[in-house]
Every structure is written in structure tokens, then in C-alpha cells.
Write a structure and sequence with these properties.
By secondary structure, this protein is of the alpha/beta class. It contains 43 helices and 16 strands.
């Protein structure tokens, strides 16, 4: 059987060889437990003693045993010195006998309580690998999950080859099972439907073949708000809905995971038709079935997003026009009032004249009547009597009511709204908790959007019913109100989709309840979260910490020990940062001349040191075509990362063809691959000792995140108007994460109208390299829920909060805290510990789901916040978050250096935004894609280029440090500490791109081994 290539050659070699320790790690791992020391004393041969200690240390670090000939020489010498023995370790395989190694292995396994990897454990591993394969279609991910499972269940890890056999067998078994089910249960009708997708379409008028396949059309979703695009999406959705409904019995048997659905769907989307149609029949059908499910769910979510966006636009526009109408009415009312006052004044004057004539006995009655008739027919009297409407309006307040205007405008905009959402209402299956809303939707569907004389209106509020019954166009207003209630229901979690990726009920995103109940302890252990299982102990610790924090913080302020607090005029404390004493600047040019290093050289050099292009693997894990040259990958990264585009990149490059570049980007540029390529650079940067110059504490890694706004050139459902940032244009937010060493380790994208807080935890969990100890954001990135979750995940959350002393502080019931009125600080209601305890099991389930990457935190938080008024889990997390936030605020007040470090770390994020603009320079820095997938791939490539430049800078600085004398080195280290490795003026990002070997021959070279072994004294 052909084995899957799970890890690249470098990773395989690293796994099958002993771990490489630095001095500190060597001391830690080779410190023997008592049983090992006792065992070692029983050995007569010094060779066996040294071999045994090394095996114990390697096993502690990796859970594996290694061939003696591969032991690291530095480790051998370290153990010889520690044991004080003198041996000749020349012919290692003869001196450390296999029989002795076997006995040592048995002793070590038994003493650590680890099961040896034998045939029985191989069956266990295969069974678990099949489970993982169904959920994780990437063999490398299955490898990681299986290795983690074996460590947790205390099973010895085998060699890479054994892993590859097990995982290959697992995928083969899984596919055989699925294809057998398809063989038996896929009907002839289903086969005809699936084959039709791969057939050439005919023109309905001429019955002649046209140039496209049906599946080609359905691949292309239109991610815009244009009515014609929505109509096209609806047509495809209805076609897929028919197929999906017919396949439902088979889908229930297949029980496909979301990962498998997406994997095969993306394969179909990337492939040409012949690449799918020529597959073995049942595998072909499996691929197409996954594509149908994926595209059906995706289009359903897209149409719901359109409905939400259209409804929100109408609501926002209506509210804005109401304000304008009210203002206009107010202006008109003022004018009418002024006219009425003026006429009234004239009327009073003429009335007095009438009174004078009436009382003038020198005039006859006929004369008085004539005078009176003349007055009645006069202009003033006429204008006064015509003021009746103005008087009525003034009685009502001078202008039309806000509600009258609002519902009138909503009614007028109904037609525009229905053009976009009527078909969505008719064809998508919603599940609403409100029975009245459900019945109204069903009536709307059954009557195909044509309403009866008295449509079901039980879902409307009293005010809405009043305006609906008195509306001049009841049907128009009803449809607007129905759409609005549906949109609000989706946002609040009261309405869900039966078939969806993004709009399922909240609990559907968590670890399945039966799995959680039966495997809770194992799942907590797997996530490394056993400590949160004891709620009472955790609560006691929080109560003690909070009481001490209150006492300590305000005692220091009262005694004048906190030198960085002042009293404002309103009595509130003002906390200031210590000023950093000005250091004399060191005049030292650290970088090459401006524009002297081509970006191709930067990428090629960094790739030579960490092989990041190895992570760019073909989508098909088995039948891979010949791999392109590395320079093609570099061209693709620049095309996306500098926003040049694949076509223009090919035209502006030498030695790269357009077809090769386009094909490479299509099959190799996935989000997972590019993230792994980034990780390879990050790991190299982490090994470079010069990067440690930018860490405040070698034991604590500080990270931060922030959003950056980008214009979108094309119409996209994912972009939003934001007048503050985009004027009359649309844009999105790219939310990026960076650590102290300037490593950009994660990014995501979302609409500019969304809050940043739900995405904070995504970057902390979904990266393989950076493990954050403390994380900072600005004010947009924090919420009480984030404080709670980061605490439970073992990460200190330390946002920068403006006017933080104005926030509410919280205490536990019966906690004695002196009055804080003197500090103008508000104390809220006591924490509801009972509520937290009642929801603790669900809180643990949610946290474990996030830690084990069962789903993203942003998905959970967006759904959970929708239920914020009702959901007990949300309320419990909020209570816990209030405790953690209060603890942080007290520390923030007391520790001026913490405030300073938070500001410094956030400044690194802001500096990286300027860096991003410089790299993403083409097309005015505006993103040219409509889909979120393309947004993420574009940004990941940009981030890789940024990381590569910083990595190159580290290599350059390290090389320069090695060259100079000791005295110059100390001065240069100070200069580096005062500067930043985020420098790009010496990098030429523009111009023609030459990817030939000749062009790269003169590249600056770095001796990586010399750099890694070089020690830097801070």
C-alpha cells in the first residue's frame, strides 16, 4: 500500500531523532526521579548508566525511545560529567547492547506507568486514528491528534513509519466504509442527478450543447447585494436543495463531518471537470456529494447574510430618513409658527380697529357693516382663517410623530427590500422558537409571498399591529415587519437554520453532550484544563485574590506608596505612566542601503533556512503531480501578499509562466498551508537569540492584537460602510496578532461593523507556535466574557482601557471592602456565585470545546452574545468575567510598569499596521476580492512576507553582531534594543521580478549554525 506523506522530510527526521536540548532543558530533563537514581545505582557498567539516564531524559521529553547511535553528543558528555564516570563511547552500538536497551525500555515504561506500543495498542491507535480521520481530513492533523491521544492515555509513541502506516490504514478504512455505503445505498436516480452535474449543458431554446458544465456554474457564488446576483444564488440554492433533499437518507448513513465535507468540496471547486469525472465511481460520487452539501450550506448562510444585511440597511436608512423628515417638519413648523404669530399680530391690530368702528356712534350701521365686510374679505382675515391646519399641527406638537414617519418610510421601502429577500423568505427553512413567527413564515411560503386579506400577525408587537392595521399599503408594511422580525430572531438566536455552517443553535457547536458526559475527565486532561474541574477550589482562590487585591491597591494609594496616582478635579484618581528616562541615542546604521535587497532575495534566503515552502503541499495528498520550483511559490506569495495579482505578477516576472503560477496558487495556496509556512518562519525567529532582546521577561510571552481597516475594490457582502474610516466606500477589518518578538502569528477578517472582542481568543488558540502568557488589546477588544474565557484558558488578559477608573468594580457577597466613594469608584451588585456554579459544567464544556479546537471561539461568542438577555451560560460567564476584570483593574491601578508594558506591546501592533501598508502597496492597498476566503489568503500571504522581512532582519543583525569586536558588540546590542526589527526601507518590494537562479546567486548568505550557537549578552 502506498503510504500517505504526513510530514515533510525535515519533520520526519526531527520526529525520529532525539530532541535537541539547550543547557537549561538538559538540566531539567536529565534530572532523574528517585526510582531512576536507584535503578542507575544497580548498574555496574558506566555505559549502561549513561545510556539509561539519556533514555529516561529523552522519554520524559518526547514519550519515545531512540536508537543509541542517534544520541546527541552534547547530551552524552553532559551525563558523563554529571555521573562522574569515565567511558569510551566510541562504538556505541556494541557497548550499549540491544538486550540492555530492551530491559531499560521495560523499566522506564513500567515506572512512568506507560503502556508499551504492541499489537494491542496498535489496534487502539488504528481505531482512534479512524475517528480522527473522519473529523480531520489533513493527515498531519490526524498525526498530531493521535500522538496527543497516546500521550494522554500513557501509550508509548512509535516511530514515524508506524504512525504513517496506521494513519494511511485509517484513511483507507474510512474511505472504504464510505464508498461501500455509497455502493449499496446510492440509488440510480441519485447517480443520474450527480452525473448531470458533470455533463455539458444544453441551450433550452436550441437544444444545442453550450460551453459550460452545470457544476462549473454552481461553483461560483455571487457574494454581493445586487438583485441579479441574489437571483442567481437562489436558483443554484434551489437546485442544490433538491439534490440535498434526495440525498438526505444516504447522508444520515454517511455521517460526514464538516471537515470532510469541506475537504472534498474544495477539491471539486479547485478541479476541472475531468479531474473529478475520471475518478473511481464511488470516490467520484463521495466528492460530489460533499460538494453538494458544502455549497448548499454555504449558499444558505450567504443568503441569510444578505437578508440580515438588507434588513439592517432598510432599518438604518429608515431611521436616518426619519431624523431628516422630523428635522424638516420641525423647520416647516417653525416657519408656520412665525407666519401664524405675524398674522395673529396683524389680526389683533385689525380687531382693535373693528372694535373702534363698532363703538363709533358717529357712523351709521350701514357704514359699520360695509367696514366689517371689507375687513372679512381682506388679506389678513383670510390668512388667519387659513391657519387652521397650522393650529392643528401645533396642537400635536408642531410636527408629525416619529413613529408615524418611521412606519411610513418603512412601508415605502418595502418593494426595494422584497426585491432582495422575498425569495430567501420563501425558500430557506428556518426554525423559529416563536410559534407565531413560524406560522407567519409558513403562510408566506405556502402562498408564494402573496398575502391574504388578514395575514397572521401574532408575532407583531402592539405598536406594530396598530400601524399595520392603519397602513395605506398593509401588504408592503407587513412584509417589512416580517423580514425585520426574522432578522432580529436570527441575530438573537431565536431563529436558526436546519442546514448551516454559521447559524446552527449554539449547543450544536459544542462537544456533543453524550461525548462530554462520558469522557469529561479525559477531555479536560487532553485540553490541560483539569484545574478548572474543581469549582469550589477555583472560587475560593478568586475570593481570596480579590480581597487581597482590594486591600493592597488602596492601602498603597492611602499611604502614598503608589507614586503614579493623582487626584483629578472630580475626585477620581488619575493613574499616570512613569516617564522613561531619555537614553543617549546610539548613532549606528543597522540596515543595508535603501532598496538594496530585493524582496525575492529576502524570501529565498529565509526559505533556505527554514524551508517554509515545504508547507505548501498539493491539495491531493496521494496522487500528486510534479511539484513546481520554489520560485513559483515565491511568485505566488508576492502576487497575493503585495496585492499585485496573479496575472500582473506573471507579466512582470521572468522565468514564471502564467499557467504554472495560476495552477500553483489554485492547488497549493490553502489557508492551512500558508499558516504552516508562516509557522516555519516563526519557529526560526524563535530560535534566533537576537529575538530575545525584545522580550521583557524570558519566562513570560506578551502578545497583542488589533484591527486594521482595508478598502474593498469590488462589491462584497462581507464589506460594510463606515463613514469614519471609509467615507462613502466599503471595507473590512483585518485583525492581526503579534508577540513581543514582532512575530505576526495569526490574522482573520470580518465586517467593519462587527466588534473585535469575539475574535481575540481565535488567534490565541489557532496557532501552533506562539503560546501567549499575557495578551493585550485596545478598548475595542475587551468584554467581560473575554476576561472569563482567557482566565479559564490560562492566559492573562490585559487590555488597554481608557478611563478605566470609571468602570464598575465588583465584589463577592459578604466581602468586606472599605467604602470607595472617596475615590469616586463605583461598586456593582455582588457576584452571583450560585449562577456561576449552576452553569459550571456548561462553562467547562465550552472552554474545552475552544481549547481542543472543536470550533472557533468567535463562532461560539457571536452565537452566545445573541442570547445575552436570556441565556444562563452567557450570564454566568459575565459574572465570572466581572471578577477577573476587577482583579485586572486593581492590578492595573497598582502597577505602573504593567500599564507601560501594555502600551508598548499595543504600539508594536500599531507599528505592524504601517508595515502592512508598505507591503500591501499595489492597487492602492485595496483588496480586490469579494469572498472572505480570498481575503484571508491574501492577508496570510502579506503576513508571511512581513514575517520573512523581520526574520531576514534578525539574521542580518545576528551576522553583523558576530563580525564586530566585543566592545562594538555591546554598543550594537544597545542600539538594537533601542530600535525595532520591523524595518523595510532596505527591501525593494517593487519593480520587475527576476526568479532565475542567476539573479539569486549574489544573495546575502547567513551561516545559520553559527548564528544559532552565538550567545548574546543583554
Amino acid at each position: 500500500m502506498r503510504l500517505l506523506e504526513i510530514l515533510d522530510k525535515g519533520q520526519q527526521n526531527e520526529f525520529d531523532n532525539p530532541p535537541k536540548f539547550d543547557y537549561g532543558q538538559r538540566k531539567f530533563f536529565f534530572t532523574m526521579p528517585k526510582w531512576a537514581e536507584d535503578e542507575c545505582r544497580t548498574m555496574l557498567s558506566p555505559v549502561n548508566q549513561v545510556g539509561f539516564v539519556i533514555q529516561v531524559g529523552y522519554f520524559k521529553a518526547s514519550g519515545r525511545f531512540f536508537n543509541a547511535k542517534n544520541f546527541n553528543r552534547a547530551d552524552i558528555e553532559f551525563i558523563i560529567r554529571r555521573l562522574g564516570v569515565s567511558i569510551n563511547w566510541g562504538n556505541i552500538e556494541q557497548t550499549y547492547a540491544r538486550s540492555v536497551i530492551h530491559r531499560h525500555r521495560q523499566v522506564i515504561l513500567e515506572s512512568f506507568g506507560v503502556e508499551p506500543f504492541d499489537d494491542r495498542q496498535k489496534e487502539v491507535a488504528l481505531r482512534e486514528a479512524i475517528k480522527f480521520a473522519k473529523r480531520q481530513m489533513r493527515p498531519a492533523a490526524v498525526f498530531g491528534s493521535l500522538a496527543e491521544y497516546m500521550r494522554i492515555h500513557r501509550i508509548e509513541l512509535p516511530a514515524y513509519y508506524t504512525f504513517s502506516v496506521i494513519i494511511s490504514d485509517a484513511f483507507k478504512w474510512m474511505h472504504n466504509e464510505l464508498e461501500s455505503l455509497i455502493e449499496v445505498h446510492l440509488s440510480e436516480k441519485n447517480k443520474e442527478q450527480l452525473d448531470a452535474l458533470l455533463s455539458v449543458q444544453k441551450d433550452p431554446h436550441t437544444d444545442q450543447p453550450v460551453r459550460f458544465y452545470l457544476i462549473t456554474r454552481i461553483k461560483r457564488s455571487h457574494q454581493t447585494m445586487k438583485p441579479m446576483a441574489i437571483k442567481a444564488n437562489i436558483e443554484d440554492y434551489l437546485y442544490l436543495k433538491t439534490l440535498y433533499t434526495d440525498l438526505k437518507p444516504l447522508l444520515a448513513l454517511l455521517n460526514l463531518s464538516d471537515e470532510m465535507i469541506e475537504y472534498y468540496a474544495q477539491f471539486v471547486i479547485r478541479s476541472q471537470v475531468f479531474q473529478v469525472s475520471t475518478r473511481q465511481e464511488n470516490r467520484k460520487y463521495l466528492m460530489i456529494i460533499c460538494f453538494i452539501v458544502y455549497q448548499y450550506y454555504f449558499l444558505g448562510d450567504l443568503l441569510v447574510e444578505i437578508l440580515l444585511r438588507a434588513s439592517q440597511q432598510i432599518e438604518n436608512t429608515s431611521q436616518r430618513e426619519v431624523k431628516e423628515a422630523i428635522f424638516q417638519k420641525h423647520v416647516e413648523s417653525q416657519q408656520e409658527m412665525e407666519q401664524f404669530i405675524k398674522v395673529s399680530a396683524q389680526m389683533v391690530k385689525e380687531a382693535k380697529d373693528i372694535e373702534r368702528v363698532a363703538l363709533d356712534f358717529s357712523q351709521t350701521n350701514d357704514q359699520k357693516v360695509k367696514h366689517f365686510i371689507k375687513w372679512v374679505n381682506g388679506d389678513v382675515f383670510k390668512r388667519f382663517t387659513d391657519s387652521q391646519n397650522s393650529i392643528e399641527q401645533l396642537k400635536k406638537g408642531g410636527y408629525a410623530s416619529k413613529d408615524d414617519t418611521y412606519y411610513q418610510i418603512m412601508e415605502e421601502k418595502s418593494r426595494k427590500l422584497q426585491t432582495r429577500v422575498a425569495d430567501i423568505l420563501r425558500h430557506i427553512n428556518f426554525e423559529a422558537k416563536n410559534e407565531n413567527l413560524t406560522q407567519a413564515l409558513e403562510e408566506f411560503k405556502k402562498r408564494d409571498g402573496r398575502l391574504p386579506e388578514n395575514p397572521l400577525d401574532g408575532f407583531l408587537g402592539k405598536k406594530e399591529q396598530h400601524y399595520f392595521k392603519n397602513s395605506s399599503s398593509r401588504s408592503s408594511l407587513y412584509k417589512v415587519l416580517l423580514t425585520r422580525h426574522l432578522a432580529h430572531g436570527i441575530k438573537s438566536g431565536q431563529v436558526n437554520l436546519t442546514d448551516s455552517f454559521l447559524h446552527k443553535p449554539f449547543l450544536k457547536y459544542l462537544i456533543e453532550e453524550s461525548v462530554w458526559v462520558n469522557q469529561k475527565e479525559q477531555l479536560l486532561e487532553s485540553a490541560g484544563l483539569q484545574w478548572i474541574s474543581d469549582f469550589k477550589s477555583l472560587l475560593t482562590d478568586l475570593q481570596g485574590s480579590l480581597g487581597k487585591a482590594f486591600a493592597h491597591t488602596f492601602e498603597r494609594i492611602d499611604k502614598g506608596q503608589n507614586k503614579f496616582v493623582e487626584t483629578r478635579k472630580d475626585g477620581k484618581p488619575r493613574f499616570i505612566e512613569p516617564k522613561t528616562p531619555d537614553k543617549p541615542g546610539i548613532d549606528m546604521d543597522l540596515w543595508p542601503p535603501e532598496g538594496s535587497i530585493p524582496i525575492i532575495e529576502v524570501l529565498n534566503t529565509v526559505n533556505a533556512k527554514c524551508n517554509f515552502t515545504d508547507a505548501l503541499q498539493h491539495w491531493n495528498k496521494k496522487n500528486k503531480p510534479n511539484r513546481p520550483n520554489d520560485t513559483v511559490f515565491l511568485a505566488g506569495l508576492i502576487a497575493y501578499g503585495c496585492n499585485i495579482g496573479v496575472g500582473p505578477m506573471a507579466r512582470n516576472s521572468q522565468n514564471v509562466s502564467a499557467n504554472t503560477l495560476d495552477n500553483t496558487v489554485n492547488w497549493y495556496f490553502t489557508l492551512e498551508n500558508i499558516q504552516e509556512a508562516n509557522d516555519a518562519i516563526l519557529m526560526l525567529m524563535g530560535k534566533l537569540k537576537i529575538s530575545e532582546l525584545f522580550r521583557k521577561d524570558p519566562k513570560i510571552l506578551h502578545t497583542s492584537s488589533d484591527g486594521q481597516k482595508f478598502y474593498i475594490q469590488v462589491d462584497s457582502i462581507h464589506a460594510n460602510y463606515s463613514y469614519k474610516y471609509f467615507g462613502n466606500e466599503k471595507g473590512i477589518v483585518i485583525y492581526s496578532f503579534i508577540d513581543e518578538m514582532h512575530r505576526l502569528f495569526y490574522s482573520t477578517s470580518f465586517s467593519s461593523s462587527q466588534r473585535e472582542a469575539p475574535y481575540v481568543i481565535d488567534g490565541l488558540m489557532h496557532n501552533q507556535v506562539v503560546e501567549s502568557d499575557i495578551h493585550s488589546t485596545d478598548s475595542h477588544g475587551f468584554s467581560e466574557i473575554i476576561f472569563a474565557l482567557t482566565h479559564l484558558l490560562g492566559i492573562r488578559f490585559a487590555p488597554r482601557i481608557e478611563d478605566f477608573q470609571s468602570l464598575i468594580f465588583y465584589i463577592f457577597p459578604r466581602m468586606n471592602v472599605e467604602s470607595l466613594k472617596n475615590y469616586q469608584i463605583k461598586v456593582g451588585n455582588p457576584i452571583q456565585t450560585k449562577l456561576i456554579e449552576e452553569q459550571w459544567d456548561e462553562i467547562m464544556r465550552m472552554v474545552v470545546s475552544i481549547k481542543l479546537k472543536h470550533t472557533t471561539a468567535s463562532t461560539l461568542l457571536k452565537r452566545l452574545s445573541s442570547y445575552s438577555q436570556q441565556h444562563q451560560l452567557y450570564l454566568a460567564l459575565r459574572e465570572l468575567g466581572r471578577v477577573v476584570r476587577t482583579l485586572f483593574l486593581l492590578k492595573y491601578m497598582d502597577d505602573e510598569m504593567l500599564r507601560k508594558r501594555i502600551n508598548q506591546q499595543n504600539n508594536k501592533t500599531e507599528n505592524s499596521h504601517q508595515f502592512a501598508k508598505a507591503v500591501f502597496y499595489a492597487n492602492n492597498g485595496e483588496i480586490r476580492f469579494a469572498s472572505r476566503q480570498e481575503h484571508l489568503i491574501t492577508d496570510s500571504c502579506k503576513r508571511l512576507i512581513q514575517n520573512a522581512i523581520v526574520c531576514w532582519n534578525y539574521l542580518h543583525l545576528s551576522k553583523e553582531l558576530i563580525k564586530v569586536s566585543d566592545k562594538q558588540r555591546d554598543e550594537m546590542v544597545k542600539a538594537i534594543e533601542q530600535s525595532s526589527p520591523v524595518s523595510w526601507t532596505h527591501v525593494n518590494l517593487h519593480g520587475k521580478f527576476d526568479f532565475s537562479e542567476e539573479a539569486l546567486k549574489g544573495s546575502v548568505d547567513f551561516d545559520l549554525e553559527e548564528i544559532l550557537n552565538f550567545e548574546i549578552n543583554k
